[in-house]
Amino acid sequence: MSNLPSFWVASLARREDRRRAAELWMDQLPRVDFYDAIDGSSASETRLPQSDVERMRAMWTKDKTVSQRNRRRKAACFKTHRDMLKAHAEDGEGAMVVVEDDMKPCEDLHTFNWLQLPADGASYLAGRLDAARVKDMAEFKVKKEASRIAAAWRATEQRVQALPADRETGPYRISSSGALYIPSPEVARDIVASFDALDRTNHVDMIYYRCPCVTHLVFPALFVSDVGVGSITDIMASQTQLCGPEYNALEAPQKVRLSE
After folding, report:
1. Model pLDDT for residues 9-22, shown as the tens digit of each residue
2. pLDDT tier for residue 66 given thresholds of 50, 70 and 90
3. How many domains is the chain built from?
4. Does a structural domain hold residue 50?
5. Measuring CA to CA, how many Å separate 145 from each of 93, 129, 135, 175, 210?
């Protein structure tokens, strides 16, 4: 149990439904807590400077009001992750796992060998496998490239896979980061530094994948989307997951039994 990282669950304070669902697995871990995510939908949110919103790339739409709202929400998500990492870099010890509140573990987190994960870079514990470029997404899906890539990983019998060196035009990208392992405060600091060096920001999932400090992924995934608490607009609930249910033995929170 001493090798268990601390778990930081990003969650909006107003999403009591998601928090109740997450508590089903959180209650079984020694070092876990909610991190109050910045609410980009709230006009009274004080932790999101307008400068951060303006730094975020806008999502194109004919409706400028919708565009600005989406931009603010993306900026809030980005800053939530940045602030969590900064807090760990400054005051944390050992490894941390950043988890979204609509995720759930699909195996025993106590018995997973955390020491097999790289110590010099972050590793995806969940996410969405997709084409490297947006224009190739439809073809990627039609050709079932995600299944082909996952099958190749399965054949290696290696639990940890290195990410492509070329993140722009490589064979795939991870476009959703439902859970991310950060091995140390030093790596958290380096990720924050890479975030702060950006002139313009984007959705945090895209920034993570392009960050040189994020180097590996775990296959099969340690976490999967808890569809029961996700809305139909949630990307993790509505689109192909990295190493989805066909590669993960457990699906429902109540089926996950963690060691004492």
Report:
1. 999 999 999 999 99
2. low
3. 1
4. yes
5. 39, 9, 15, 15, 21
| Reported pTM | 0.87
CATH of the domain at 152: 3.90.550
For residue 1, is it within any domain? Answer: no
Any domain includes 117 = yes
Residue 123 lies in a domain: yes
Domain assignment of residue 180, given as a range: 6-255
pLDDT band at 221 (very low <50, low <70, confident <90, very high): confident
Q: Are 244 and 250 in contact (CB under 8 A)?
A: no
pLDDT interval class at 99 (50, 70, 90): very high
**C-alpha to C-alpha distance for 188 and 118, rounded to whole angstroms:** 14
